[in-house]
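> forwarded from #structure-qc
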């Protein structure tokens, strides 16, 4: 870069500070006097702070930023997350029996000379173990409340794949500190006016207490307000309420008792018109109720949340979060690019929000032109991000459309008119074969084919391979591998510490 290039990030929170820190690191900001990155953060606007879950990619991101793992865990009240346990999604509890399944982060056991998935599919449905239990040791480890690693193992490394639960406000604070260490400038002020030039690009921003700001690239991290990409530039918002019906959430935090179990998984429990989340932080439980306002009243949703939280929740302090599921197809317009909630929002607590931030920032850092107009990468960026959003919508819809529940919310979700065409086509194919790697192009996918397998077969989807049974001749070898997985699971449960013990040890500085 021969001329000074200025990047202004409007909005703090997780999106703003993660964007700032990643750009500062990737672009070697501290070494380049010709580059300036500023975060303009309003002290009057609070963070949404719902997304307290992550995917395993966050480990690489934190390591890239040079943030010590133990420090991250201590300063954000973090715990380790090995996947998601789904309860009551396939059907309503009856006679004391509940349907549950686990979506682990660990990929299914891989052997070079045999694919175990068809052999599981050909087993007797009445006696075979759940898919995740048969295919990976992580199911057993998480069920036993064990940690994915032992004390003393290298930071961000472990025998099992994992992510985190964390306090979103505390994470933003930690990211802000690291971003400033990497050379990011922090300014506190509220945007009062966005001026456009004759070509429709952003000319400058006016603020209430720090005057005018001019920049080459404006990154909109202003959350649901979409101050720049929406209000100023008018980039249309594409609603996906026709596929994802949830548009409300109630959230609360309740203390985690000293003797209570500390889960290393998110718990997602279906209810009559949506689902409840539960995540375990160090010292608290984050609990919330996602629902569709077309199918459930606000008062009924509050009752569902209180019932779930149990005795003593009559005066529970709940935070109401209305949202519109959807995204902006044009997330990079002229000299402005949206990252985080301003670009789109699909469901509360979906760790996909952070993954989308990571993907967007990685592309911005790589595509940022050294000279000339800032809109050069816009077309490619918008294509890739639109494809990512659409693929995530397909994956989320998969959780709903396979349900056998009979309430109106769930029957509407199963209606063919609400299922995206691409997903409907894949479901038709998957009736005769399991999902495979060629179904999902990696450059625009957040989820791998085995993530789809965990949901499909956890929900009871049937793939009929009976016509090809004679082609799968390695039954004895497959049975030995299934038994090996169970032995490994037994050993892991015996060898790994409890999740609570490891988190306590990290917080004690040992």
């Amino acid at each position: 870069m021969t001329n000074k290039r200025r990047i202004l990030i409007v909005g703090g929170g997780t999106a703003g500070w993660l964007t700032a820190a990643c750009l500062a690191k990737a672009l070697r900001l501290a070494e380049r006097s010709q580059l300036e990155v500023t975060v303009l953060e309003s002290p009057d606007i609070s963070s949404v702070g719902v997304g307290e879950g992550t995917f395993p990619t966050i480990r690489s991101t934190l390591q890239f930023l040079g943030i010590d793992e133990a420090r991250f865990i201590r300063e954000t009240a973090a715990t380790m997350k090995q996947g998601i346990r789904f309860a009551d999604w396939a059907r309503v509890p009856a006679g004391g029996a509940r349907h549950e399944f686990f979506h682990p982060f660990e990929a299914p056991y891989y052997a070079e000379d045999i694919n175990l998935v068809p052999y599981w599919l050909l087993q007797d449905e009445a006696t075979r173990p759940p898919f995740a239990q048969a295919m990976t040791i992580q199911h057993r480890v998480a069920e036993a409340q064990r940690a994915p690693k032992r004390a003393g193992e290298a930071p961000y490394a472990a025998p099992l794949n994992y992510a985190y639960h964390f306090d979103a406000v505390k994470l933003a604070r930690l990211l802000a500190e690291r971003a400033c260490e990497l050379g990011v400038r922090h300014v506190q002020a509220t945007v009062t006016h966005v001026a456009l030039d004759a070509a429709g690009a952003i000319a400058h921003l006016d603020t209430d207490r720090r005057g005018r700001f001019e920049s080459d690239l404006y990154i909109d991290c202003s959350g649901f307000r979409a101050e720049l990409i929406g209000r100023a530039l008018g980039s249309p918002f594409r609603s996906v309420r026709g596929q994802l019906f949830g548009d409300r959430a109630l959230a609360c935090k309740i203390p985690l008792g000293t003797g209570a179990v500390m889960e290393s998984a998110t718990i997602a429990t279906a209810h009559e018109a949506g689902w409840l989340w539960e995540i375990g932080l160090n010292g608290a439980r984050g609990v919330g109720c996602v629902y569709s306002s077309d199918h459930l009243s606000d008062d009924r949703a509050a009752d569902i949340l209180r019932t779930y939280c149990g005795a003593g929740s009559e005066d529970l302090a709940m935070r109401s979060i209305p949202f519109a599921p959807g995204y902006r197809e044009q997330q990079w317009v002229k000299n402005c690019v949206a990252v985080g909630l301003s670009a789109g929002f699909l469901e509360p607590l979906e760790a996909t929000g952070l993954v989308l931030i990571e993907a967007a920032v990685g592309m911005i850092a790589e595509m940022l032109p050294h000279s000339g107009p800032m809109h050069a990468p816009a077309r490619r960026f918008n294509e890739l991000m639109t494809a990512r959003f659409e693929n995530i919508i397909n994956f989320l819809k998969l959780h709903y459309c396979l349900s056998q529940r009979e309430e109106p919310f769930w029957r509407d979700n199963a209606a063919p008119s609400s299922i995206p065409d691409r997903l409907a086509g894949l479901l038709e194919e998957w009736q005769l074969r399991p999902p495979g790697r060629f179904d999902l192009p990696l450059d625009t996918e957040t989820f791998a084919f085995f993530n789809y397998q965990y949901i499909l077969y956890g929900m009871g989807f049937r793939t009929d391979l009976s016509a090809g049974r004679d082609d799968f001749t390695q039954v004895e070898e497959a049975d030995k591998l299934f038994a090996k997985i169970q032995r490994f699971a037994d050993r892991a449960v015996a060898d790994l510490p409890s999740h609570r013990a490891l988190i306590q040890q990290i917080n004690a500085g040992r």
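QC bot note: Residues 378-401 form the longest helix (24 residues). The chain has a mean pLDDT of 94.
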